[in-house]
Amino acid sequence: MANRWINTLKDSDVTPETTFLNRRQMIAGAAAAGLASIGGSLSAKEALEPNSYEDITQYNNFYEFGTGKTDPAANAHTLVTAPWTVEIDGLVDKPGAYTFEDIMKAMTIEERIYRFRCVEAWSMVIPWNGFELADLLNMAGVQSGAKYVAFETALRPDEMPGVRFPVLDWPYVEGLRLDEAMHPLTIMATGIYGKDIPNQNGAPLRLVVPWKYGFKSIKSIVKITLTDKEPATSWNKANAREYGFYSNVNPEVSHPRWSQASERPVGGGLFAKRIPTLMFNGYEEEVAGLYTGMDLKTNF
Amino acid sequence: MSGFVDRINSGARKVPTWVIYLLLALPIPYLFYLGLTGGLGREPIKALEHEYGELALKLLIVGLAITPLRRYFGVTLIKFRRAIGVMAFFYVLAHFLVWAILDVQTFDRVWDDIIKRLYITVGMAGFLCLIPLVATSNNWSVRKLGPKWRKLHRLTYLAVILGGVHYIWLVKGIQLEPLLYMAVILGLLALRLPKNKQPQARRA
To answer: Which residues of B touch A273 (CB under 8 A)?
Structure first.
């Protein structure tokens, strides 16, 4: 059940591997199998170029390895990613420890070129490789009472120098509503530019929810719990006034300490121009329906 | 100890203050050059902004340390204090300009941030505190203002506290570095509390 969504972002000149050229989908327009929306919003038709591999892998927020942008690239090599198991529990038919290999065998890996918008108001375009989270959840069998999905990052003080200081209440936890988790745009990424995802980007598998601020896309996941209660999320616990459960990209709702109306694309150098931030990070057509009738200013 | 202090003091006497101005000024164009040429990482705007801001805070702290160094250790670096203070102002100015022109980019957004975002308001207030200080950092003003000059220059204490608060406030989560800066700032200011509260320290 993969390939429900087709990329609308175009090829990059900086792509290091020419083998990628024929795999890229260069179709403009948002219509895709399994998606309700037809035709394309302006944002979907817009052709974006992925950032360079270096931008994506040398400018990271992964506080378990330090709070500086280059700390994860410098420190994350210590993270042992094989063997790796993901415990899936809660309201599922088949709870248990799933090995990374077993998951990969069962999943169809595809490429998704997504915008990535950090809550700090910088952005990138990233060619992820991965599979839809829905496929993994279906593998475990979601029970009818499940309403939310909780995620947890590995917590390994010996391998993660950043967790010695309580920047956040470790381990890092995140959560989605079940319909958000099952949405075809929501993926588990296992690669970037066709290579195994580097440790600093959340190896061996991480969530990617492209219409939400980057911190929702939790890295190096060891546990997934299906639940009927809204799960706690790390940044919300740290500062509920600034970080809500939903954290959908929304140019009209400011972070209390800065505006979210515009963003700076990473990779443009010292004179990079800010660009306007798009509602739902440009995926309004695809995901606005999830929030019909909700006040997005209070449910930020 | 005293031999070491004497050597520092006699060494300091031989260094002309223009050397300090020059040494402290050089990182400003050098960091800008690094930003232009990829030396500050994949996103150089915030990096440059933070480099200037952090150096500004460091210089303000060094400025605060001059008096306690003399009082408690006999190290006399007082002749460099003006250079350190004036250069701290220029780092704050560079920090502000990078923020306003390269980062935020439009006047509307700059003004919006200054009035709406409290940590920026606090930073701006600190910057404004430094303007009368840099304007009176010359011999003529010292003579002209007399005892009022000392009083006016106590604004440094406020400016450096505002800078420290600005730093703590702007980071996400609980981070160690801005807290360490604040601890040093408060420690250096505590040394200036009325002398009868610190009798042992004075004799040391």
So the answer is: 105
